[in-house]
Amino acid sequence: MRELRVEHLFTAYDRADVLEDVSITVEKNSITCLLGSNGSGKTTLIRSILGLTPPRRGSILFGDRELTKLPTHRIVAEGIACIPEGRKIFPRLTVAENLRLGAYLEEDGRVIGERLERVFAVFPVLAQRREQLAGTMSGGEQAMVSIGRGMMGAPKLLLIDEPSLGLSPLFVQENFAVIRQINEQGVTVFLVEQNVHQTLAIAHRGYVLSKGSVVAQGTAQELLANDEVRAAYFGSGGER
Ligand SMILES: Nc1ncnc2c1ncn2[C@@H]1O[C@H](COP(=O)(O)OP(=O)(O)O)[C@@H](O)[C@H]1O
Ligand SMILES: [Mg+2]
After folding, report:
1. With 60 as the cut, is the pLDDT of residue 229 above it?
2. Which helix (H) or strand (E) holds 161?
3. Can you give the pLDDT at residue 128?
4. What's the half-sphere exposure (Cβ side, CA atoms, 13 Å) at 105?
5. What is the pLDDT of residues 137-152, one digit of tens each?
6. What is the per-residue pLDDT for 102?
7. Cα distance between residue 45 and residue 8, in whole Å
8. For a 10 Å CB count at each end of the chain, is N or C smaller?
9. What's the 229 CA to ligand 1 centre distance in angstroms?
10. Using one digit for the tens of pLDDT, what is the confidence trace for 36-95?
C-alpha cells in the first residue's frame, strides 16, 4: 500500500526551476531513500511535500489526501514530521524543551510524557541530559535531539533530510540504526541522503535525483548494481 505519491512535480524558486517532472512513490511502512549530490533538489522536494515551497505543477498524495493545496500546519496535522537538514535544534532551550516542541499538536500531557519516555528509551543519554541546554551538547547528541523531536510528533510519515551530514562514521551508523528501529515500529520513512552505502544498507527502495530529475530507481540492491549510480558515486571520487 502506498503512503505517499509524488506525481509529475515541478518546483521553482522565483525563476530558477529546480524540480522537473519528479515522480516518487513511498510504500507504507517502508524506508524509501532519495539519493543525490549537493544541489540536486533533495531539500526542495521535502520543502514541497511540507508546503514550504509549494510546487508549480504536479500532485502530492498522502494516502488519498492531496497536499499541494494545503498550508504547512495542515500537512503536519495529517501525520507528517520532518527532521530537517542541519538539525535545526534550539540551542538556548533544554533538551526536554526541544523534544516537547515536536509534540506541539498533542494536548494530552500524559501522551506527551509517554512519547518522551519512548525517546529516552532509544537515547538514554538524552534522559540524563534533559535539563541541559541543547546548544552545549556535542554534534552527535544534537542529532539525537533532532531525531527525538521528529519522533515526538508520532508521525505516520517521517521525512529525514541528510541526517549523516557532519557526523562521524560511528554516529552515522548509530543514527541509521535508530532510523531503522523507528521504521520497524511502524513509521514510514522518506530518507534523503548523499551517503549511498549507509543509506542503501537500511533502505528498501530508492530513487536517484540528478539536477532536479529522477535518473534511477529500484530496490536497494538494484541501485547498488546500477551503472549510473556507480558512475556518480563509486567513480574516481569514491563515496560521497
Ligand atoms: N531558497 C532558495 N532560493 C533560490 N534557490 C534555491 C533556494 N534553495 C535552494 N535553491 C537552489 O535549488 C537547487 C536545489 O537545492 P536543494 O534542494 O537545496 O538541493 P540539495 O538538498 O539536493 O542539496 C540548488 O541549485 C539551489 O541553489
Ligand atoms: Mg539539502
Report:
1. yes
2. strand 157-161
3. 96
4. 17
5. 999 899 999 999 999 9
6. 95
7. 12
8. N
9. 21
10. 999 999 999 999 999 999 999 999 999 999 999 999 999 999 999 999 998 999 999 999
Residue nearest to atom 7 of ligand 1 (CA): 13
Q: Which residues, 6+ apart, have CB-to-CB distance to 16 below 8 Å?
A: none
Mean pLDDT within 112-122? 95
Find out whether 162 and 192 touch, Cβ atoms under 8 Å: yes
The CA 50 to ligand 2 mean position distance, Å, reads 14
User: Any idea what DSSP says for residue 228?
Assistant: H
Does residue 90 contact residue 134 with C-beta atoms inside 8 Å?
yes
pLDDT above 50 (res 215)? yes
Domains of the chain: 1-79+157-240 (3.40.50.300), 88-154 (no CATH)
What per-residue confidence (pLDDT) applies to 234?
A: 59
User: Parallel, antiparallel, or unpaired for β 65-66 and 188-193?
Assistant: unpaired
The answer to whether 112 touches 103, Cβ cutoff 8 Å, is: yes
Cell numbers describing residue 81:
514530521
pTM across the whole model:
0.93
> Are 98 and 149 contacting, i.e. CB atoms less than 8 angstroms apart?
yes
> Which ligand is located closest to the Cα atom of residue 19?
1
State how far the Cα of 82 lies from the Cα of 102, in Å rounded to an integer: 9
Ligand 1 pocket test target in 10, 18, 159 with most atoms within 8 Å of CB: 18
